[in-house]
Amino acid sequence: MASLKELRARIGSVKSTRKITSAMKMVAAAKLRRAETRAAAARPYADAMRRMLAEVGRSVAGEGGQPALLTGTGQDKVHLLVPMSSDRGLAGAFNSNINRTTRNLVLKLQAEGKTVKILPVGRKTYEFLSRDFADLIIGHRHLSASKEIPFSSATELGEQIASLLEKGEFDICTLVYNQFRNVMTQVPTEMQLIPLALPENDNTGNADVASYEFEPDEGTMLSSLLPRNLQVQLYATMLETAAGENGARMTAMDNATRNAGKAIDRLTLTYNRTRQTNITNELIEIISGAQAV
After folding, report:
1. CB 103: neighbour CB atoms within 10 A?
2. A Pfam family this protein belongs to (predicted)?
3. pTM (2 decimals)?
4. Cβ-based neighbour number of residue 264 at 10 Å
5. Residue 36 maps to a domain
6. pLDDT digit string (tens) for 99-119?
7. Integer Cα distance of 67 and 282 in angstroms
């Protein structure tokens, strides 16, 4: 049985831990409100832009000379995966869910005979994938450490992906990220970026394809909008990741704070019982000694 001194030290240590987790919970809650607002504001714009360009792609299907960002290379041999996680831990299963989803996807594609390349975004997924798939990683990026994620981060990543496509480094690009639903729920999601596909929640898949007239011309418009769409999709998922990370961290720290409180109660009970036992033993020794005299 631990001594009273050891129990006091353990109680003090857990109390200090509870103060830290409680403070981290409040910080995450403050960041979450801002991140959730930005993610919710970006989501409709990103979905509408993706849907519009996908519809344009269907309307011009079969015509030659279409941009690779729209139609891809026409092959299905080399897959580029872009998993997106946070740079920091202490967020529950937020990062491990992305890592597990990406790992399963890599193994599935390899089992189908595909060549896989990985471009991780976020320190946690990079560190995890480096252990098992170091030979598949062709580069990595960290998310911005500032309070607000700048659009330039998505611009640089989009330009890198477009450059790889132009060089023929891959045929299909898939983004793996946590879709923010609420504080308790972040859903690992796979989104195909190249070739461009309709959003999963789109209900117009069976509708008649619209007819478009291009001004100034189809090539000029698509060459301008497609790179921008790629950057917008990446930026929207970065905002989703930031919101999900803070939501997951707030939940994890809340659970840690509650568990620390329960541990303090148990240790305090053990301390009081041990103290009472020591007092009782001392009284018995005193009474026994008095009787012996």
Report:
1. 16
2. ATP-synt
3. 0.83
4. 17
5. yes
6. 999 999 999 999 999 999 999
7. 88
Range of the domain at 30: 21-202+214-252
Task: Kindly state the tokens that stand for 174.
Answer: 């898939």
Domain harbouring 125, CATH code = 3.40.1380.10
Encoded amino acid at 281, one letter: N
Question: CA 260 → CA 16, 22, 26, 30, distances in Å?
Answer: 10, 10, 16, 22
Question: Is 161 a member of any domain?
Answer: yes
Q: Mind listing the pLDDT tens digit for each residue in 240-253?
A: 999 999 999 999 99
Q: What's the token pair of residue 49?
A: 């832009």
Total number of domains in the chain: 1
Residue 84 falls inside a structural domain? yes
Helices (H) and strands (E) in the chain, counts: 6, 4
Residue at 257 is within a domain: no
List CB contacts of 271: < 8 A, sequence separation 6 or more.
4, 7, 8, 11
Contact partners, residue 149, CB within 8 Å, separation at least 6 = 143, 235, 238, 239, 242
